[in-house]
Specification:
single chain; elongated; about 10% helix; alpha+beta
Length: about 100
């Protein structure tokens, strides 16, 4: 994965990047793919370079709401909705593009 495609990876020193580079590989997901479920241990880190990931919260009514979006560009890093009292264990991460 070219480090120039992700701003966080690009900011790493060459020495630091060389430590994680062997573990990096490009992945492609279809829209709405769940990266991990609420309460699940996170064992994989995703460095976005051509995507936006949504943080989806399931409400007590069973409805889902997109609480935040994270992406490669600064404009992608915006909060879409404010959820008061939402429990972090309820969050689900899904790619939206």
């Amino acid at each position: 994965m070219p480090r120039e495609r992700n701003l966080l990876l690009k900011s790493l020193s060459a020495a630091d990047f060389s430590l994680i580079e062997p573990h990096l590989r490009p992945l492609e997901f279809k829209q709405h793919k769940v990266l991990f479920e609420a309460g699940q241990s996170v064992s994989t880190v995703y460095f976005l370079y051509n995507a936006i990931v949504s943080l989806v919260v399931t409400l007590s009514t069973g409805e889902s709401i997109e609480a935040a979006m994270v992406g490669r560009r600064p404009a992608d890093r915006m909060v879409c909705a404010s959820i008061r009292g939402a429990d972090a264990r309820q969050y689900q991460r899904t790619p939206t593009r």
